[in-house]
Each structure stands twice: as structure tokens, then as C-alpha cells.
Amino acid sequence: MADFVVQTKNVNKVYGKTVKTTALHDLSIGFEAGSFNAIIGESGSGKSTLLNIIGTLDRPTQGEVIINGVSTKNMTKGALGDLRNETLGFVFQFHYLLPEFTALENVLMPYRIAQGKADKKSIERAKEILDLVGLKKVENNLSVNMSGGQQQRTAIARALMNHPKIILADEPTGNLDSQTTDGVYQLFRKINEELGTTFIIITHDRRVAEKADRIVEITDGSVTLDVIK
Amino acid sequence: MRLAFSIALRFLKSSKGQTALIVLGIAIGVSVQIFIGSLITGLQKSLVDKTVGSASQITVESVTEGDYIQDSADKMVAIQKSNPDEIINLMAVAQGPAILKTPDDSTTIILRGFDWEDAEGIYKIKERLTTGNLGNNRNDIIVGQDLAEKLNVAVGDTIEMITPTGMKDNFLVTGIFDLQIKSLNESWILTNLNTAQTFLETNEGVSRIEMQVNDVFGADLVALDVERALNDETLTVTNWKIENAALLSGLSGQTASSLMIQVFVMISVVLGIASVLAISVVQKSRQIGILKAMGMHNQRASLVFLFQGVLLGILGAIAGVGLGVGLSWSFATFVVNADGTSVVPLYIDWYFIGISAGIAILASTLASLIPAIRVSKLDPMEVIKNG
User: What GO cellular component entries does it have (chain A) (predicted)?
Assistant: First the structure.
């Protein structure tokens, strides 16, 4: 059996009580540790739902999600929160930075959620990550005083802060121009290669998808294409 | 805790205008509370002071009218011991009616004799003396201003008095007093204890033992202590609260109405904070959602809003205390009678102010509970789905 860092088993997701809409249909898929995966599909195909379920932000109607070999099915909200904090990093289409805080403080946030106070070591690490994403110069800027590309790179730096095993990215470059988009993907690749972080990225951009190790296509809540290079 | 607090602080700092508005709202609430509270308390204190400040607040008398209390010195020691912290200005009075005769007039008066030094506490006779001095010799008396005018008597004159039992003697007027109450000025003649005891044939007894207490509103309880300590069925102990029931019910009505005003002011403050914080939850739902997605627990997310409530309460309370004390001081200083004295004297009770500030902090914390609960229910998915 392959070494899956995250795996879904027969996951169904149905929205609505009176009018039921099936977003995911008996979906089973696993992602190997250290792999770089792209998920593609039409809008409304269920790819974001899958990513949110993998990220434990949403619960499946049926089936289970196994992260690091542990089923998340019976975990409490608090335990899921801890799991997300320690194991997962999220990058969304919108950066969702806290506008009241500087870039550095935003990057430190996942660490502070876990530990309360940022120590010298963690501040050093946050600075290193900001350097890695090329934002050393603007680390003390409030997030509202940065460009769209800088904001998204800050969000990526934040996702990396707690040494996550998996980074889940939902159209992370959807709002960025093509030049910045290239920069972000080069960065993802670099992190993947240097730190061995698993990436699961939803994208509309075929060019981006083609650079991944594996392309999964979702149609109407089911996997219709799974290509491993 | 620390993270929740620093996020709360940052949220408040980042929307300074909104924060200032809530703080101002709480401050006005607290200041109105302090102002009304101080005003009503000041008003009541001055009213009570004017009514019983210069009168006996607890009086021990003989049950049978006209009987005298013997061994008054021992009894006074026992009384003082019954509640040494509360009882002040203890004094013995020998008094009785007499007919005063001048060459062309006669009138019934009450002769009251007491130790001038002891009486200073309650009656402050020295201050009230308009001319002459207190006579310490036998048969020295001082006469009320209105009586002196009526009988055309001046300092240095001698007058004759007769008791109901037929005792007759001459007295030297050494001073004229003004107690600012016409009925007393017309009917009282004051003298030293010895003179009164001899003339009224009290046989070294006294008519009544008078005293004041530190907490005037606790006079009834102290009176019970006195009664217990004396344990004498021939004596009766009365207090000013029984004699001034109408005044007291007026005062308690006033207290109740001021309390009502304060409660409603506080309710409006609570509703104000709750609604502004509820709006702020909507404003900050993105941030809260992403914090939860990053693993922040529900309770901690709630704490952010609870801390905001506490911080707003503390800031509002501090500003409110300043504003309230300033307002009370201005009222006492600038709203004055024709003679320059305050219409209502300033009365700052720091204990009451502390309670008002505490209630404000508690109320704003309670008000933040509603948004805190909303936050704990916020699903990060909602934020991520809807952007």
C-alpha cells in the first residue's frame, strides 16, 4: 500500500435537506507524502468541496478522511483545530490576511495559535520564511499596505509557519497576473523540493496543472482523470 | 489567553473611531450614574444633616414623664460601652418647665441645663451665641434671641423664674443664642447642669441622656444596643428615625427612583455595547473564520470578543469616573445659592464610584457575551465559501 499522507475513503457530500445536491460521489483518493498534485475541473464539479473536506474545514456526509494515518471521523472540533494547526497549511484564492496585523505578525499567527507567545526562535523562522517568499523588505508592513502578489506570498508564508506536512491551495493564483502566478508556482515547487511538503492545488490554469507530478480531474463529484507523471 | 488579548487589543486599535464611540457611550452611562448618585446622596446627606445634625439622634428618657434618671454618669459609661465605635457626643440634660417673670411680662419656658463642653458636640452653642458668653457660675443663663426680644432682655439683666413646684430664684443673663429655629429661640433657656439640677430639684438626676451616632441611618440599631446595655424598664430609648418616619420614607423613595434611573442607564449602555460588538463580529467574521481555519479553538475566538468587552468596559469606566466626578464638582461649584454656597453640596463617595465602575466593566463584559457566543458558532467554511 502506498504511503498516503492524506486519504479519503468513500466520501460522499450532500448539501441541502429538502433539495439535495450531491457534491461528492463515493470519492476515494490518496495523496502520497511529498507529492505535488493538481486538481482540475469545471466550476461546481466538487473540487473545492473535496479540498475543504481533506482540510477538515467541512465534514463528509458519508465516508472518512484519514490524515497521517489517523481517521478524523470522530474527532472533536477542538482536535480538528489542533490537527489543522499542526499538519495543514491553507492558501486560498483570497489571501485572508488579518488586516490589523503586519506581514510578520500574520506569518506568526499559526504558531501563536498553538503556543500563545512567539519566542525568538519562531520570530527568526517567520523572518526566514518571509525571506524565502521574497518579502523581507515589507515584513513590517500592515497587510493592507501590500500589493496583491505580496499579500498572497504572505499567505503562503503563513501556511508554512508550523512546518505543515500538507499544503492545500484553492486557486491560489486566481487573483494574480501571469507573471506573479509563475513566481508563486516556482515558490511552491521550491518548498516542495526543499522541505518535502505535500501540495494539493486546485487550479483552472492548465499550464500550472501540467507542471504538477499528478493531475486529478473531478467531474460531477467523481474522479474522471488521474494522471501520474 | 495572551493571543486572544492581543488580537482583541489590535481589533480595538484598528477601528479607533468605533472604539472611541463605545468608550464614550459607556463613559456617559457611568458619569450619569456617578453624577445622579452623588447628587442624590449629597442632597440626602445635607437634608439629614440639617434635620438631625444638630439634634439628639438617640435619646434615653424616663418612661414616666417628669421622673429623673439617677446615676447618669454610670449610665453614660454603660451607653458608651454598648457601641463605642458609633456613639458620639454623649451628654446629659436636666430640663423642666418654668415661668419666667419680668416686671411687665411673664411666659412659660423650658429650662435646659447641661455641661457646656459635652453639649458642644450636638448643639455647638459657642457658635450659636450672638452676644455675651456661656455662664459657668450658679444661676448664669443664656436666652434665645426671640425670647430676649420679646421680653426686652439684654446681657447683664437679671430675671426671675418660678418652677411648677413653687421654687423661685433670680438668674443673670450672660448671653443670647440663636439656634435658627424660632420655636426654640422663643422657648429655651439654657444653663449649666448644676444650676438646672438645683433649681428643678432633680436631686442630681437628669431628664434625658442624648447622643449622636456616626452613621445616622444606623441609629435604630445603635438604639437597640443602648437599650440592651441599660436593661432598665423605667427607661425608654427613642431614635430620630422613629420621630422622622415621613422624612425617611421620602428619602427611601428618592433612593429607589435614583436607583431606577441608574439601572435603566446601565441597561441602555449594555444594549449599546452589545449591538456595536455584534456589528463588529460581522465586520471581523473573515478574520475570525481564518483564525479558526488555522486551528484557533471556539472558546479562544470567543475570548477575543470577551476581552474587547472587558477592555471597553475598563476604558469607559475610567473615562466615566473622570467625567462624572468633574460633572458633580462643576454642579457643586457653579450651581450656587445667592450667598455663594452650593445648592447641593459635593459628596464624592469613592466606594459608590468604585461600584459604578465595577458594574460598568461587568455590564460590558456581559454585553460582549452575545457576540462571543455568535463567534463561537461561526463556521470557517461560511467565510471561505463566501469570500
Answer: membrane protein complex
Identify the three-state secondary structure at position A147: coil
In terms of domains, do B153 and B201 share one?
A: yes
Residue B69 · residue B192 · CB < 8 Å:
no
Look at residue B59 and tell me if it is in a domain: no
Q: Which of B353, B293, B36 is nearest to A91 (CA)?
A: B293
Residue B255's pLDDT band (cuts 50, 70, 90): confident
Cell numbers that stand for B373 in this block: 457566543
Instruction: Give residue B224's pLDDT.
Output: 92
Q: Is the pLDDT of residue A1 over 70?
A: no
| pTM score | 0.74
Which three three-digit cell numbers place residue B25? 457611550
| Averaged pLDDT for residues B225-247 | 89
Phi, psi (5° rounding) for residue B163?
-90, 165
Q: Mark which of B203, B232, B261 sits at the end of a domain.
A: B232
What are the residue boundaries of the structural domains of chain A, listed by start?
Answer: 4-228
- In angstroms, the CA B367 to CA B365 distance is 5
Res A95: pLDDT: 84
Q: d(Cα A123, Cα B166) in Å, to the nearest integer? A: 104
Is there a single domain that holds both residue B37 and residue B94? no
Q: Are B200 and B237 in contact (CB under 8 A)?
A: no
**CA dist B309 to B204, B266, B339, B360, B362, Å?**
69, 15, 47, 10, 9
Same domain, B188 and B253: no
- Would you call B286 and A96 a contact, using CB atoms and an 8 Å cutoff? yes
Domain that holds residue B321: 2-51+247-386
Name the minimum distance, in Å, from the CA of B7 to any CA of chain A: 9
- Above 80 in pLDDT, residue B102? no
Residue pLDDT, tens place only, B19-60: 898 889 889 888 988 888 888 888 888 888 877 888 889 999
Using CB atoms within 10 A of its CB, is residue B75 exposed (0-12), middle (13-18) or buried (19+)? buried
A213-217, B251-255, B339-343, range with greatest mean pLDDT: A213-217
B85, B222: one domain:
yes
Q: How close does chain B come to A85, measured CA to CA in Å?
A: 5
A144-171: buried (b, 16+ CB within 10 Å) or exposed (e) per residue?
eebeebbbbbbbbbbbbbbebbbbbbbb
Predicted confidence (pLDDT) at residue A2 exceeds the cutoff of 70: no
Please check whether the domain covering A4-228 is classified as CATH 3.40.50.300: yes
Q: A67 to chain B: which residues are within 8 Å by CB?
A: none
Whether B315 maps to a domain, the answer reads yes
Average pLDDT over residues A83-109: 91
B1 touches chain A (CB under 8 A): yes
Q: What ipTM score was computed for the predicted complex, to two decimals?
A: 0.90
Chain A CA closest to residue B289: A96
Quote the DSSP letter at residue A59: -
Q: Do B287 and A110 touch (CB under 8 A)?
A: no
Is the residue at B240 inside a domain? no
User: Judging by DSSP bridges, how do beta strands A36-40 and A62-67 pair with one another?
Assistant: unpaired
In a domain, B82, yes or no: yes
Question: How many domains does chain B fold into?
Answer: 2
**Angle ∠(B313,B315,B321) on CA atoms, nearest 5:** 95
